[in-house]
Every structure is written in structure tokens, then in C-alpha cells.
Amino acid sequence: MAKLVYSMVSSLDGYVEAPDGGIGTGAEDEEVHTFVGDVFRSVGTYLYGRRMYETMVFWETVPQEADVPPHIRQYARDWQAAEKIVYSTTLESVSSAKTRIERTFDPDAVRALKAEAEHDLTVDGPNLAAQAIAAGLVDEYHLLVTTSVVGGGKRFFPDGVRLDLELVEQRTFDSGLIYARYRNC
Questions:
Q1: pTM score > 0.85 for this model?
Q2: What is the per-residue DSSP string for 15-59?
Q3: Closest among 179, 183, 146 to 167, alpha carbons compared
Q4: Which pLDDT tens digit goes with each residue over 117-151?
Q5: Residue 65's CATH number
Q6: For residues 76 and 59, is the Cβ–Cβ distance under 8 A?
Q7: Full domain range(s) for residue 59
Q8: Tens digit of pLDDT for each residue in 58-91?
């Protein structure tokens, strides 16, 4: 059975989106980007809400020319190779290959997908992740924590959730960003 992983860049105070949109720096540096690419290279399916898909679809169009850094070209190839499911009631069409739209998030369908999948899945975006967490579907949580405190916005974890997690991996980068991988106990 494949795992469902929830991963996002978060501010030090736990927000994935600040009121002004930004959450700090560190995630865009080459060392971090290469690490993230290596960690998620084996993902077979990305589960996105509309807004996260609209952000990530950039990777469908990254040129493969020599002037694009190798770690960016590799991440684009890996993203393009994976399946994508976009949960949206408003999106009319997708602009990437291997992508389909689902109108509602169905926990039973995701359970079946996990049971059948040969590669792990990710759920990306705090709103969609909140639904997966509430349904007990998330197996691992990967946080990339910046050095910024933003004081508000959209939180990594939804309100009202209680989880007991085990830290299974951690890494600190030269930029100050911290990676922490947790799994359910």
C-alpha cells in the first residue's frame, strides 16, 4: 500500500500562506530544491486543490534547454511523469498531461487509490490536506520550515486536529530552512 504524504513550506509559526502571501525565504535555494526533488522523485500521484494546481502547473512548461539549471529540469521531468488529480468545482480544464479533475474529494476513492498505487501519493495545499487529515488518510507529514514568523494566514495543520507523530527524519540547510518528516504513531 502506498503512503499519502502532506508536504508544504511553512513559516516558523506554522503558516503555509501569510496574509500578504509570502512566508519567508529558503525554499528556493538550489540545495533545498535538489533535496525536495530527490525526496519526491518517486511520487506517483499528486492530489491538488485548484489553487495549488495552478501554482504547480508551471512545471509542465519548464524548458529543457541547457540554460535551465539541471535541478530545475529534473524536478520538471519528475513532476511531468506523475499523475495529477485536481479537486475543484470551478476549474473547467487542465493544461498538463496525466491530469484529471475530480469535483469532490472522496476519502473512499483516495483509500482505494492508496491501496492500488505502486508509488506514494502527496496531498498538497492546506485546504485539501485538511480534508485528508480529517479522513485519517495522511500517513506522513513533511514540513519545510523557513526562518520567518508571519503572525497569521493559512496554517499547515487545520484547527481542531489532534495528532501524535513520530519524527523520523530531519535536516537543516545552510539557508536556515529545516526539513522535518513525521509519521503517525
A1: yes
A2: EEE-TTS---SSTTSHHHHHHHHHHHTT--EEEEEHHHHHHHGGG
A3: 183
A4: 999 999 999 999 999 999 999 999 999 999 999 99
A5: 3.40.430.10
A6: yes
A7: 4-184
A8: 999 998 888 999 999 999 999 999 999 999 999 9
